[in-house]
Amino acid sequence: MENDPGNLTRPGYGPRPATPTRERALSASRTAVLETLQTSDGPTTLAQLSDETGLHPNTLREHLEALVARGYARRLRAAPSGRGRPAWLYEATEPEVGTAGSEYAGLAATLAAHIHRTSSDPREDAVAAGRAWGHDLASRSGPPEGSGAAEARRKVVRLLDDVGFSPQSDDRATTVRLTRCPLLETAKEYPDVVCGVHLGIARGALEEYGADSTRTDLLPFAEPGACRLHLLTRTQRR
Questions:
Q1: Is 238 contained in some domain?
Q2: pLDDT in tens, 120-164
Q3: Contact between residue 187 and residue 5 where contact means Cβ atoms under 8 Å apart
């Protein structure tokens, strides 16, 4: 399957950056409010947020106050306009990025640029590297709880969740939406390399779990909010 390169520049297509660890401690409702703030064009009023989230202003105010208190968002006054007190505006704060995280992202970007520049087939080399990585990740996570290709696919989805892709899959884990990307900016610049590595991770993990990965494919930036991973497998003969 070939991805439409135009999707790389279409607003809203593809995943969001990987969720910072601090956000994983929030409830689902507060995470949804925070994500609305993060995707807003600028500071937003309570009324606007209520329209976007569908939450009652009182409920929304409670979530916002909690987000502000914990440092996920900040509150500021709108510019005066006519009589009355200006409205409060809310915006997300930038997540703190540790030194190790920024160094890892920089190293990944450097390696992706090197492979893209020097390899005669960057995508295939990236898939091969990712496959080896996938085998290693899968071997360290332990075998699936059950047997068969379907259980191997489900185990791969759990592994992808552990490394930051926030996957959403159907019941048999044959089609998976990857809604987050640990290396989103580098993937946009070098999709052949970064997306190739991610495909290789899925293939290598499937093989480690005893499933055939021949028909597995990744469509980068395939739809609004996600890349699409097809885990079409069968059990390998031993």
A1: no
A2: 999 999 999 999 999 998 988 777 777 788 899 999 998 898 788
A3: no
